[in-house]
Amino acid sequence: MNVTITPSSVAGTARAPPSKSYTHRAILAAGYADEATVRDALWSADTKATAGAVDLFGGDVDRADDGTLEIGGFDGRPNVPADVIDCENSGTTMRLVTAAAALADGTTVLTGDESLRSRPQGPLLEAIADLGGEANSTRGNGQAPLVVTGPLSGGEVSIPGDVSSQYITALLMAGAVTDEGIEIDLETELKSAPYVDITLEVLEAFGVEARQTDDGFAVEGGQSYRPAGGDYAVPGDFSSISYPLAAGAIAAGDDGEGVRIEGANPSAQGDTAIVEIVERMGADVEWDREAGVIDVSSAPLSGVEVDVEDTPDLLPTIATLGAVADGDTRITNAEHVRYKETDRVSAMADELGKMGVETTETQDSLTIHGDESTLEGATVDGCDDHRIIMSLALAGLAADGETTVEGADHVDVSFPGFFGLLEDLGVALERSD
Q1: CATH code at position 298
Q2: Residues designated as active site
Q3: Which residue range is the domain that position 213 belongs to?
């Protein structure tokens, strides 16, 4: 599907979708349990992949009409799957499920789409091997397809922290049900640390104790996953909130009516930083944390410097904000953003460039030169990446002329209702095959 955006003003109320990061962890945590209910879960292409893995491990994920997930788990010991686990486009699924597979008494094969089969898994495979399991890349390059054989009993392992925090999450979640537990020593500084905070928060909600140590993280073995009261509610997603928030900052009308975002309750998500970033750039932002409501109105924006070491998913949104701001917007500590669904640093530089935006790209930074840019409508490639698609659609709100985003159906990965939300806020858009 392609979507053509006509420059538009936005106003009205938007509801934050549930957090993808929390939903992944909650579905798998419920799988590790005997049974659990997950409420307010995001049901998207990525989270369906995690649910499918739980099913193949011997669990059962049943989605009710109201979206609630009733999950019968495999009670800490996954079965050997009867089929290959297809993680689709979901890196989170592959990494979390790879560690779960190492608990099964037999061999599991995992694969994914072309993009996922190009993403690095090597450090996690090495960690599983160091803990007594077997884990190999079929092509010997540290990338999927993967073959994992267990069971492992736990122990101490070292792993780099600057490739993906998901490795740490995967090992902590699996380690709780091993005999010995797992102690993780970080070889390098941890990137995207708030995502491990999310993991610790979800583990605590499911009755599992894990902790940060002087050198990394640790989780005791022999624990059971049991959420209080038998259920868990997923909070709103600040990665997704960044899009209606940026839309209000870019294109709220001149009549004073802005965009209200509901479901913006505080949590461990690092991407809550987007509220402060948009405010620093000059938009009028008010966040009632107790009510979970953000109000945003547009104003002239100015470039800022933003470090995305802990918030890699915000880079595409910030790049679009920089394209409409005065001066330079410099995004730093961004090398790990190159290893997502696509190289998001180059993708945003290339696609915004088609719209007349001047950028400077280094290995670990992206600078958007707002004063040297003329934002013009163009046909751009969504790069099969949900966050690139949504960010380019926002750029189309302020461009001179229509903007067509190709491959826009990939928003289903994290925000299936994104284009409907834009329409509800007053955006004129057309879908086409």
Answers
A1: 3.65.10.10
A2: 313
A3: 20-233
